[in-house]
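Exercise 4. Each item below gives a protein and its sequence. For each, produce the structure-token representation.

Item: Chorismate dehydratase (Paenibacillus oenotherae).
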Amino acid sequence: MGLHRPITIGRIDYANVWPIFHYAEQMLPGDRFIIDKRVPSALNGAMKRGEVDITAMSSFAYAEHADDYLLLPDLSVSAKGRVNSILLFMKEPLERVLQGTIALTATSATSINLLKIIMSLHYGANPSYVTMEPDLDSMLQHADGALLIGDPAIQASWQDRGLTVIDLGELWQRWTGYGMTFALFAVRRETAAERPQEVAAVLRALSESKRKSLKDRGPLIDQACRQLGGESGYWDRYFQELSYDFGSEEQAGLKLYFDYAQQLRLLRHEVRMQFFIENTAIRVNE
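Answer:
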């Protein structure tokens, strides 16, 4: 790692992270920090390869390599119930889908494994899965149901196709009583060790952006209407129903998800969540 190159920060290219990044980029000068926008699966791989230093990343991908990363405290993309952008679209009744085929988006590990956990442990089902690009029409040509996430899921949900739609955040909450954390913010351990002041600057910028964005959602709502379409009332509710904290409630829900994933052997090991703090000490949640 070159000590003098800019820090590269991964930004998920979906509206669900906008509050945490909307003002942050103005606070992080371009000669010291680079923002890299990609879908979650691409950022997960880039983080693993060392192409980005700090990133918003799928919770499941963090868990797979948790020993290599530290979490930035009190930042996440979570939902206490309905998430509105992690959706299972079904052209057949649920009973048939449980025994049929589900097309999975190629863009996120967390949502794919959440669906598998729900199918196996909640419904006692074992459908077949096929991974495809996130195009709903094509997916439903090859499967009974289709999992979409992020902006494509939102835009598909606005169309009246006669499909049944299940919100996985809402279903998880009804089943477990917990909210679900879909994305976390992590830093590579070597970056935290070699450049703690710059990591702290990123943490402060992201935290301040979250605070300002949630205090006044108007700029985010206006941007979403311009860029993605839809009505302002939808986007106001969308940003309200997401949670960007990562306190004890969010951590408890995510731990249950990790435990279930380990039970199904989707994860091979127990996950200990370790956090970056500004004095470079490490806090461990046992």
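Check: The CA atoms of residues 80 and 179 lie 4 Å apart.
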